[in-house]
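Today's session is about reading a structure prediction critically. Students often jump straight to the picture, but the first step is always the sequence itself: look for stretches that repeat, for charged clusters, for runs of hydrophobic residues. Only then move on to the predicted structure, which in these notes is written as discrete structure tokens rather than atom positions. Here is the chain we will use throughout the hour.
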Amino acid sequence: MCLLNQTATCPKGFDDVQNLSYQYDFQFQEITVASGPQPENDKDDILLSTGVRYFEASGVSGNIEYSKRLMRADYDEDRISLTVRIDF
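Below is the predicted structure for this chain, in token form.
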């Protein structure tokens, strides 16, 4: 299950974007290990993203985005994404 909330404002060709996603794993299979500390077996997390989009009338567009996953005890995720598009 994924609930999204996305906002954007438009100052002359640029859009700033913030995205907050709550994700719950309905088909989660619990993991156990024979020895040592057991994993947390989290079933849900939050993905927080922020970035900027650029649009130009000539057909050039792109975006840069940073995201971070929160609320997972045994898992870290940080991501940077860059996309550039040019119409031929």
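Discussion point for the tutorial: The chain is about 0% helix and 60% strand.
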